[in-house]
From TrEMBL:
It is found in: Cell membrane. This is Ubiquinol-cytochrome c reductase iron-sulfur subunit. Its EC number is 7.1.1.8. The gene is petA. Binds 1 [2Fe-2S] cluster per subunit. The main subunits of complex b-c1 are: cytochrome b, cytochrome c1 and the Rieske protein. It is an enzyme of class 7 (translocase).
Length: 195
């Protein structure tokens, strides 16, 4: 047998071995790569949440869950909105400079619509859930009627979720991405499209 025939046979065997080995590695990798994908439960937990706000009364707070966290939706009456500008000197970040909200909510109300406030109901200190105090918050901050008070370590937030100075919480409450489909339907977990 000639050496050129041996060389050709070796070449075919080498190519066959590479092809079979590559197919085996690819087949073995599929289950491994699939294990990196989030589970169906995780996918379900991260989907946007629709909230019907048609029956939300002025001053009322409703809570929904999104990504395993409580999200508050509050319908602020005009008196609450007017009061937001009256205590800015007491706040740590009154202009919402820290990136705790989407750009479209970086305004005095920290919301798309002034009357509808959406925030994740978790204190930015150690993750407790503050209490909504629509008419008794002045027990914690003099002359501020409404706000959110965290009973764990005494942090306080105004009705735009802005943190007061001198409390343990370092940042304003987080405003999640959200958008309005119409006047009655709010979607949490999806960004408002630019106007």
């Amino acid at each position: 047998m000639s050496s050129s025939a041996d060389f050709g046979r070796r070449r075919i065997l080498a190519l066959t071995t590479i092809a079979v080995g590559g197919a085996g590695i690819a087949a073995a990798s599929v289950p491994f790569l699939k294990s990196w994908n989030p589970s169906a439960k995780a996918k379900a937990a991260s989907v946007p949440v629709e909230v019907n706000i048609s029956k939300l009364e002025p001053g009322q707070l409703i809570k929904v869950m999104w990504r395993g966290r409580p999200v508050w939706v509050v319908k602020r009456p005009q008196a609450m909105l007017d009061a937001l500008a009256q205590h800015e000197e007491l706040l740590r970040d009154p202009q919402s400079v820290e990136p705790q909200q989407p750009k479209y909510a970086q305004n005095p109300w920290r919301s798309i619509k002034p009357e509808i406030f959406v925030a994740i109901g978790i204190c930015t200190h150690l993750g407790c859930s503050p209490n909504y105090q629509p008419d008794s918050f002045s027990e914690h901050v003099d002359q501020v009627i409404a706000g959110f008070f965290c009973p764990c370590h005494g942090s306080g937030f105004d009705m735009a979720g802005r943190v007061f100075q001198g409390v343990p919480a370092p940042l304003n409450l987080v405003v999640p991405p959200h958008k309005f489909v119409d006047d009655n339907l709010l979607v949490i977990g999806v960004d408002q499209e630019p106007a």
